[in-house]
Description:
alpha/beta; globular
Amino acid sequence: MEVRDLRNVKEASLEFAPGLNVLVGRNAQGKTSLLEAVGLLARGRSFRTEDTETLIRRGAAVLRARGTATAPDRRTCLEVEIAPGTRRLRVDGREVPPREYHGRLEVVVYSTDRLRVVRGPMRERRQFLDRSGSALWPAYRQTVRDFERVLGQRNAALEAGARDLDTWNERFVELGARLRDRRASYVERLRVALRHGFHPEGERYDVVLVPAPLAGGVEAERPRLVAEMEGRRRDEGRTRRSLVGPHRDEVLLLVDGEEAGVAASSGQARSLLLALALATLEVYRQETGSAAVALLDDLDSELDEARATELCREVSRRGQALVTTAHAGWARRLADGGRLFEVEAGEVRAA
Length: 351
């Protein structure tokens, strides 16, 4: 991977090991920014912010990231270039739209920046599920895109009092029912992985959808969504917005049966986030037969050293893992058999 002008990283070139990679350095030296660069190459966007222009190093005009994703049957060169007002994505030197760029490299992130998935607005939890599910199934990704487009068109028709609202209602019901069904299928896989995964202190983790999925799948969801729309018809006419559907459904994350955003302690919220990341990795491995890249940021600040070490080694036995830490002693012990990088003031060198 090569990175230029991302946050405080002026220029860096790294060759990661296929298993465990440890980035060590004091706080605010650029370790998390290097994980962010890997996420940027995988997704074309940051996992830390929606405002991609803030990634550009102060004083620089353009951010560039380039990396090679290696699979058993192919090698793919991925490039991202970000400048004020523009974002360019390239695959093997050819500029492509986002829909063609995605799906060539997948990452799963654990970072305290991601605690908004647990404690933030409901939108964060819906996006977490839809992005993770979309990484597994292209049909899921296409359904999300189609639903978002029709949602915008239906909202425009509501705003204008347009005569073609019934047409958009039909498409909204069809795609909304499909998205609910795909989301429910992914959640069921995630729940199984959570039950058999990481459980510090014997805590139980779960994901619950509201409204609850129906046994009949898409065929059962269509009439339910129609009834929900009819029940809010006057409200939608007054607000001129779509008030029911998968874009407004709730996703509840539970710790020992209690909603995490309300009842979980800070430590429980972090443990839940880690459990979700590991479960997402497991579902991806089961479904695709390959491993996503695990990005584990500052893991040893949340877990005792022995547990953090075992987790890192277990994840890296199943695929590639990038781990950051501020503790040089632990990093050197952890990187035995892996690769160690030292990060200071935005500069990186192999140790």
